[in-house]
Design brief:
147 residues, alpha+beta, 60s Ribosomal Protein L30, Chain: A, 4-stranded mixed sheet, 3-stranded antiparallel sheet, 3 helices, 7 strands, globular
Amino acid sequence: MVGFSPQRTGEKRLMSFTFINPESLGAPRGYSNGVLTEAGGRLLFIAGQIAWDQQQQIVDDNLVRQFDQALANLIAVVDEAGGKPDQIARLVIYVTDKDEYRRCLEEIGQRYRTRMGKHFPAMVLVEVNSLLEDDAKIEIEGIAVLS
């Protein structure tokens, strides 16, 4: 069990997470096995977000750019609700090609860290046959715990 990183000077945090990573599962890479939160937070359930812009057009056919836009869209929902990316407790990532995702993992990781820092919620990657929007290669949904 690993606790949330210490507060920075001047930073006020009302809600905290405890990351649960049993040694018996080995060290997770880029995710946490479990996220425990205190009672009293508000749950924000974030619908699956794809890589579209304000006109609801897919921004690019490149998986890395789609990942980046889908994650930005998910964070926009959190922001609109008054939250921050480090309040995201769970992400579900749907991809249409897990092999392409693996090939792009380094670039995807860079884009992830640019938007989320070193905050790694509980995550799962699910390969699906297709998504509702034909040009979408990735969709990300999540749950955030807001203070």
